[in-house]
Every structure is written in C-alpha cells, then in structure tokens.
Amino acid sequence: MATAFDAAVLRVRWTDERDEAGLIRRLADRGHVVTWAGRVEQVLIGRARDPIDDLLIVGTYAADDLCRYDTVATWQVDKCVQWPPDARRGIQAWFRQHHEPGVPTAASWARQRDYTALAARFSRKGLGPTAERLREFALAESAARPVLCTFQTFQTLDDGDASGRKALARFDEALGPTVARLGAEPRWMAHGSDSGWDDIALTEYPSRAAFVDVLASDAFGDASGDRDAGLAAVELLVCSSWTGFAQTRTETTVCPAPWMQQYVKENGTYNVCCYARDADVVGDDGRRLHVLNGHTHDDVVNSKFVRDVKSQMMRGEWPKICADCESAEKLGGGYRFEKLGQCDQNELRELVARTEADGTSPPVLSQVHYSLGNTCNLRCRSCGPWSSTRWLNETHLLEGGKLSRESFSGKDYQWYRDEAAWKPLLDSLHNTQVVHFSGGEPMLIPQMLQLLQRMIAAGESHHIVLYYNTNVTNVPGEIRDLWPHFKGVTLTCSIDGFGRINDYIRNPSVWSEIDANLTHFDDQFDEYGISSIRIGCVVQVYNVLRLNELMEYVDKKNFKHVRTIIMSPLQHPDHLNVRILPRALRQLAIERLASAREQFFATDGGSDPALYTSIDSIISVLEQPDVDDAEELQGKFARTTRALDESRGENLLDLVPELTPLMRA
After folding, report:
1. What's the start-to-end Cα distance of the chain, in Å?
2. Which of 41, 148, 442, 609 is the most exposed place for a label (fewest CB within 10 A)?
C-alpha cells in the first residue's frame, strides 16, 4: 500500500565496515528504490542531528516498511514529500536557461580570500558558515563536484501567514541567476512531512570554488535580509555523490563526438574529434577515410575504428585517443564539456541507449566541424605548416628540419574546393544543429560563404548554430547579410595576449586591427546576428606571465558582449607546455592570475563563470609536477625560440624578460 509520503532522507552511521553497494542492495531487497546517495564530507552550516552522519541517502519508496537498523549501519529517517515532477522540471529548465556551461574548478585561488570578512556577512542569527568551516570547505582536496544538501525551517511572523517561505522565495529569486550562471544544478527537492524541516533540497555545484563565489557575490549580500527574515533554522551538508544524480561511470567518459559529429581535418581526412590525437578514421582496409572519396556519415561513425571508441566509452573507459581530455579533466578543464554544451544531451543519451555492444549506432549527423585547409595569414608559434600556409617558408625550423614543405602544400589541403566535400552535410541539413568552421583561417575561404548561402537557400539555416574559430584579422563584408539567417553565431576569437605579446605569438598580426575588429563585432552584435563572442587563449610558456594583461584589457575595454575568456592549456608542441617552467616562474604566474581573478570578480560579481573556471584550471596545471624531460624540453624551447626570433627579427626577452633563465637553457 502506498504511503502518504513518497520519499525519505536517511542519515546513516556505519556500525561495521563500510559497504555502500551492499547497503543499497539490501534496501532494494526491501522494496526501496534509492534515487541518490552521497557521502557527507562536512557540516557547513548548523549542527547535524545525532547520530552524526557518515552517509546521506535519499530514497523513493514502494512500501513503508523502512527498517531503521541494519547489520552494518543505523539510520535516522526524515520522511518527506517530493516536489511534483512538473514543478521540479520547471525549476531545472529555468536553471538551464540561465546556465553558462563550465567545468570543475580548482580551489587554489581561494587561499587569497579573507574568510573572516566573508563569513561575517552571513553570521547573523547563526544562519551562515563560520570562517573556519568556510575555509575548510573551500580548501579541501576533493575532485568531486560537491552536492550541497540544505534542510530549511521557515519563520512564521506575527501576521500568522507563511511569510517566512515568502521571504525565502524573494531571496531565491534574487540569487537564482547568479547561482545558475556559476553552474549550479538543482538535483532533488522535497517538502518536509514529519521530518522536522519545511524544505529539503540537493544542489550540485561544478566546484567548491563556485559555491564560495556565490557567497561572495553582490546578489547574495543584497538579498541576505530576506534570507534572515525567512529562515528560522538551516542545516547545510556537503556531500560527494556516489550514485543516482552523480554522473554514472559511463557518463564520465561519453562524448558526443563519435556519435553525433563529423570532423574533417585540414588535409581532408576524417578524425573522431578536433582535440583527439592520432584519431584518423580508418576503414576496414586500414586506409584513412577522406572527405573526397564519397564516404557517408554511416561509413564514418560506424567504421570499426569509431565503433571501438564508442564501445570503450560505454564501458566507462577513456579511449587512448582521448588522453589529452582525460588529463585536462583531472586538472579541472577539458574539451569534452564544450562538446556536451553544443549538443542536445537528451538526444545523445538516446543514441547511446540505442548503440549495440560493438559500438554500432544510428548514423545521426547533427554536428559537423570543418577545418578548412591550411590557408592562413598568420604563423602562430604554437602552430605549424599543417594549419598555416604562412609557415611553409619556415618548415625547416621545426622538428629538427625533418618536415617537408611539399607535404603541406598539395591538393589535399584544398579539399574544400571540391563539391563532393559538402555532400554529407547537404544531405543531412534537416538534422543538423551545429556547423563549426576552423582552419587555417575560415574567414579567408570563399567556399565557406558559399556554403552558408546554400544552407539559407535550402530553408534549413534557422535551426543551425554556426561556430567559428577565427583570428579576427579579416571580416568578410558578406557575413553581415548571411549570419542573421541562422539560429545563432558563436565566435571564438583566437587571441593569445594583449598588444605586442599577441603579435609576437601570432606573427604577423597587428594588435590595432584585432582590437578594431573585436570592437566592431561587439558594437554590431545584433546586426550580425551574433549570439556569443568569446576570446580563446592558448596558454603557453610565451604568455602565461602576461595573461593578466589580456584580462585587464577586456575589463577596461568595457565591451557589451565580449566578456568570456576561455584559457586552454597547450599540450603540444611539448616545449611550449607551461609545466616546463621552473617552479619560481610558475609561482609568479599563479600569483598574477589569482590577483587578476580577484580584480575581475570585483567588477562583474561572478557573472562570467567560464573565465573563472578556465583560470582555475590553468592554476591547477601550474601546480602540477614538472613534465618528464623538463630540462631537455627547456633546451628545445630556447633553441626553437632563438631560431624563430632570428628568422622574424624579434626578441622574446624584449617582451617577457622574466624568461631570461629559460633562454639560457
């Protein structure tokens, strides 16, 4: 018989050896369905009722015979009524609307916080964390996304109505956009029944740092009066998920690229993803598939190579080709999150569910990514002739002179001129959600503009979002008339520093031209039909000590639409990886980044979570141990830098004299 309540919170104390899986299995045997379980790491606010919790379990029940005692654990039960599904979905939809996809962040920046002052803002009536608890929370070593479980009791004021709940509703409404922008997600909500609490909620944050940013925001301070007026008591437990709403083992590895995307490299071969290494798609004959050989999307996505990648992901394994993403996610970054943010995740889950054990899946083409050859007007120091024709005259300076200029100047790198290259996309326009252009420099390719015209003429552009990686040196006049026909346009502007340091890294760029074009896009944002402008900065030895200058430029420029700076740690070439830097220079870079982070936060109050998460991921990289063969790579850095400086008439030490010790290697 169904009970009057449909859920309960179990506060568990282990009386024997911890056996999490066994406990859930025993609950299931009694007819209870566990929908979430997590380990309590800390009581942040309030005092946990006896017994002190080692584990938190939220369950939904098919029967009310919940046993309070087990052979290995005891638990206290808070009976409650889950919020109606429609109301819960409505709140989650609202959060998604205000959410800006981010990645887990490091807490190392938080050592700079004044926790005494921060806690004092919320200490009224004992409804906030103490400075000690807040500091402990922020600096705790934990790679998990924290789930905060809140138990609330509302005040009833003199007028006798539920004005405490109303006051909390005003507080939630005022703070909600900030919480959502910083990446929080509501996971589970219930009204108290005979639990002693009015409301219980689980909220997952991308990091501990993100939660501290919420507390430090102006929105929290401005609305705290309503919080004080509404709450009579509150308890806040910090948990780490291990089932239910936590990512399952599969979801921590699944990426949309091998299911939903077709990526064509600069030389016309197919690759699983633009970030994957050694991931050229090969057919059953062992030969690489090429865009001009008439392959369908089914040929690509269900080739044995890609099927094996999907199978590994579904088993919860990281494929070898995804090593860079795996490493980046461990350090608080990663490109998989960006891919997930660009796709319909419900569609992805359905595709994964319909995938056979050998990796065969329905050939649904919803995303395409074209690296449009190697035609480019810049010769960036982290690049090479495979992505820029401007590098051809300096090919001999790379890899000890082993590279051949001819290898990068053939017709393969002009595949986009052939009509056959566009057939898979044009045949699937009705399903296409994203078309991504990179290069080379896509703004220099007339065929890109022609493809936009064809998508518009086919009547399919209205549901397609365009993504561009561009160096912002060239703005074709035609795009003003073409872009507004599409669902959205996201520009990632490749800028690796402010002023002269950017021109040095991205020779022969001219900063005044980049500044003018960035300002133009910002001013004409609506006229061009742009939906997002962000700066993509590849963090490397050359610029890591000057990133604060780029942040200061964006801050002082007071752009209306350009705020986000996505900082990605460079992995290759290995001699530019910031982990080759001596420890003293790394510490200097960390201090400058932490200072710039605080300054930026004071200006925007945390409205740009992507910036903070990328800063924290760079700090995490800088805090890692040295790379293998650091001394050898330092020598390679010095030799390559001197050779390019001589070829281009430049001198690194004129711009970054702090790197003098490295140039002596």
Report:
1. 77
2. 41
CA distances from 500 to 22, 204, 508, 641, 658 (A): 61, 42, 11, 16, 16
Interatomic CA distance for residues 284 and 391, integer angstroms: 35
Give bridge partners of residue 268 from the DSSP assignment.
none
Amino acid letter for position 507: N
Cα–Cα distance, 540 to 494 (Å, whole number): 14
Report the distance separating Cα 348 and Cα 363, nearest Å: 12
* Joined tokens for residue 553: 């430029």
Rounded distance between C-alpha atoms, residue 499 and residue 550, angstroms: 8
For the sheet with 270-271, list strands across it: 270-271, 261-264, 367-371, 434-438, 465-470, 488-494, 532-539, 562-569
State the alpha helices, DSSP H only, in 390-491: 423-427, 446-457, 479-482
Q: How far apart are CA 429 and CA 367, in angstroms?
A: 10
Contact in structure between 592 and 545 (CB atoms under 8 Å): yes
127 φ, ψ (degrees, to nearest 5): -100, 15
Q: Quote the CA–CA distance of 549 and 351 in Å, as a whole number.
A: 44
pLDDT tens-digit map of 165-213: 888 888 988 888 888 888 888 888 888 877 778 889 889 888 888 888 8
SS (H, E, C) 337-366: HHHHHHCCHHHHHHHHHCCCCCCCCCCCCC
Look up residue 290 and give its DSSP letter: B
pTM of the predicted model as reported, rounded to 2 decimal places: 0.68
